[in-house]
Amino acid sequence: MPQEAYPSPVSESRRRFIVTAGSAGIVGLAGCSGDGGTDTDGNTDASGDSDTDGNTASGGDPVDSSFTSYTRVRPQDAQYNPHRLQNEGPGVEYLFDQLAKYDEDGGFIPLIAQEWNIPSEVAAGDVIEIQLNEDYTWHDGSSVTAQDIVTQLRIEKLFDDPVWNSIESVSAADETTVEMTVASEINPELLKHNLFAERRVNQPHSVFGEYAGRIEDATTDDERAAVEEDLVNFTLEEPVGNGPFQFSDRGETELVLERYSDYSNGHITADDINYPNVEFIFRDGDTLPLFLSGDVDGGDIILPPEQKNALQDYARLQVLPLNNGEGMCFNFENQWLSNVRVRQALAHVVNRQDVLQAMPNIAEQSTPLEVPCSLSTNAIERHLGDLAGDFTQYAYQEVNEDRATELLEAEGFSKENGLWNTPDGELFELEVASSSSGTWLSHGQSVVGALQKFGIRAQLQQHGETTFWGDVIPNNDYDMVTHAWGGGGAHPYFTLRNDLVAQARLDVTNQPVEWEVPMPIGNPDGELETINVEDKIVQLERATDQEEATELIRELAWVSNQMMPRIPQRQYSQVHYYRVDNWEFPEPDAPSMQPPAASYWPLRVGEMRAKTE
Questions:
Q1: Can you tell me the distance from the alpha carbon of 601 to that of 444, in angstroms, rounded to the nearest whole number?
Q2: Angle value at C-alpha 467, between 464 and 471, nearest 5 degrees
Q3: Residues 250/282, Cβ–Cβ less than 8 Å
Q4: pLDDT tens digits along 468-524
Q5: CB 369 within 8 A of CB 569
Q6: Are 301 and 575 in contact (CB under 8 A)?
Q7: What CA–CA distances, in Å, run from 453 to 299, 399, 401, 461?
Q8: In the chain, N or C terminus with fewer CB closer than 10 Å?
């Protein structure tokens, strides 16, 4: 999936695969780890030692002075306001550090947040403290302070950040101490995930303080809406970051970052990074030639199986199973697609195995979803168990045209001369929008082909990456759209929230949060009950009893399965390319080789370097 879609989520399965280019199978495998507890004082061990084939960063000039990747955003258009969806600039993983890095052992590794006190039981009124690492500075030389964190969290409250379901206030006790008052009893593990997981510190008070102040002063919905509008329209051309590399320059076809000389994260300093630049090459179309020619050193790759052996011998592929994937999303402003029976009918027509086969990916990337319910296959096994057999499978291995026909006819649709008509006698026509890059296009082509075969007049509208994410998605310019399901942290809470609440806003599909759902769970013909998914998500956040949490997970998964707000097509595995001729990386099964990519965490613990002459 393109890097612009969503931040790379943490794998539910905890597994890591490394595929050697040119080989037929998997050559490295790291074992699974359990849901271990978090070190609540923040002193989780880093990633441990690793074997780098005896090469070190000391001595000699780097063989390659610039680590090169690619971007689908034109460098001249790139901007770094995280609230503006259009043209998100490349390199955010180098520009900004997180409060803490999620570790596959179940804890969090300190970065900007050096210590924190989140006890095993958290009640309303409790005050949580986060102590910041005093060594961190912004790229303008100023210290990263508690006020920066307060500013960011207050802004993100405006955008319904889930951490605000857990806290009622945030303040700076001093320069390096953030204090948060807990709003209600909360699951402490989910609180840590909401606070730390994937939260880049990317909104310095010096740039965003004005907006945070306006939010605090706002007394009406109109005033808050005005701040939100100004924020999403604000273009930040040159980011003020805090990560190992800072913005340097941009041209027509490339954007360059340079090593930040004052970087220090508690694990390494800038002196431990022996290459001066990271460079991004612009490519709007097929990126595969960049990898086959050796023009890039790392990046997410879309690799057709037949091209796997064409990679150079120095290439390595890191396969990271994720808890998301491609999904077909609906525009709920369409009067027919707002009908649940119509969405169910389409889900019975689009065969997920056929879609999976159409994806131009190596076999290790694709995990079929037997039960579409906004949960990964591991989460289904763990939280649904045998109950999954009572969920509606829809078109998994074969199309169910009879059931699709039954559903449409019950809603007044009719079929004449092989084509479906709507209840008002017009042709049932659907415009399916897709990006022209990556797996999105093959996904859209497969879905449109299935709809046409069933007799629906479907048309595929292809758009360039910039237009697709910058105009088509925000402006609701589609009936159906190739997009995604799931994503987020390792807990099912994140995939359920993304599909049922959060992404409904992000996708601008006007998806409701209140549904009439057949109950009990497992009975699609049961009595209808009104379920507010926002309320259920909050209840899940606050569930400290595992039995209660499991029941809520099952109920929300059932809502997704029966309401079909989007049709999940497959569980995706991200493939990250990296090369070992000019670059040193840890061994494939090293603890540091974990999501989001091989070039992210090894860099921050001193285990990824340029080879030297």
A1: 34
A2: 155
A3: no
A4: 888 888 888 899 999 889 887 778 998 999 899 866 555 556 788 899 999 999 999
A5: yes
A6: yes
A7: 37, 11, 10, 18
A8: C
In angstroms, rounded to a whole number, what is the distance separating the alpha carbons of residues 539 and 493?
10
What is the token pair recorded at 62?
């780097």
Q: How many residues does the chain have?
A: 613
Instruction: From 529, 495, 564, select the one nearest 332 (Cα to Cα).
Output: 564
Among 358, 362, 366, residue whose Cα is nearest residue 308: 362
Collapsed DSSP state (helix, strand, coil) of residue 571:
strand
3-state secondary structure of 399: coil
> What helix, strand, coil percent values describe the chain, rounded to 5?
30, 25, 45
Q: DSSP 3-state assignment of 430?
A: strand
Are the C-beta atoms of 379 and 495 separated by less than 8 Å?
Answer: yes
Which of 119, 120, 118, 149 is closest to 132 using CA atoms? 149
Whether a cis peptide bond, with omega within 30° of 0, leads into 596 is: yes
**Beta-strand relationship, 100-102 and 277-282:** unpaired
Provide the token pair at 523. 């009975």
Complete DSSP assignment for 205-226: HHHHHHHHHHHHH--SHHHHHH
> 240-267 burial by CB neighbour count: b if 16+ within 10 A, else e?
bbbbbbbbeebeeebbbbbbbeebbbbb
Using an 8 Å Cβ cutoff, are 44 and 120 in contact? no
Cβ-based burial of 449 (10 A; exposed 0-12, middle 13-18, buried ≥19) = middle
Beta-carbon contacts of residue 96 (< 8 Å; ≥ 6 apart): 200, 201, 202, 239, 241, 242, 243
- Establish how many alpha carbons lie within 13 A of residue 170's alpha carbon, considering only the half-sphere containing its beta carbon: 23
Record the tokens describing residue 440, joined without a space: 């999105």
Q: Where are the alpha helices (DSSP H) in 429-545?
A: 438-454, 465-467, 492-497, 503-506, 533-542
Match 């809520």 to its residue by tokens.
Answer: 552
Q: Which of 148, 153, 149, 158 is nearest to 223 (CA)?
A: 158
For the chain, the farthest-separated pair of C-alpha atoms sits apart, in whole angstroms, at 77
The Cα 1–Cα 325 span in angstroms is 8
Task: Give the C-alpha separation, 278 to 301, whole Å.
Answer: 18
Worst-scoring range by mean pLDDT, 327-336, 341-350, 371-380, 436-445? 436-445
Report in angstroms the alpha-carbon separations of 311 from 19, 294, 299, 361, 574.
12, 9, 14, 14, 17
Identity of residue 323: N
> What is the per-residue pLDDT across 558-581, written as a single tens digit (0 to 9) for each?
999 999 999 988 888 888 899 999
| pTM, 2 dp | 0.73
Element housing 480 (H / E): strand 480-486
* Positive/negative CA dihedral, 373, 337, 325, 484: negative
Q: Quick one: pLDDT band at residue 365, thresholds 50, 70, 90?
A: low
169's tokens: 């206030």
Sequence-ordered strand ranges (E) for 305-388: 315-321, 324-330, 366-368
Exposed/middle/buried for residue 121 (C-beta within 10 Å: 0-12, 13-18, 19+): exposed
Chain Cα centroid distance, residue 230: 25
Structural contact between residues 161 and 154, judged by C-beta atoms closer than 8 angstroms: no
Instruction: Assign 559 to helix, strand or coil.
Output: helix
End-to-end CA distance of the chain: 36
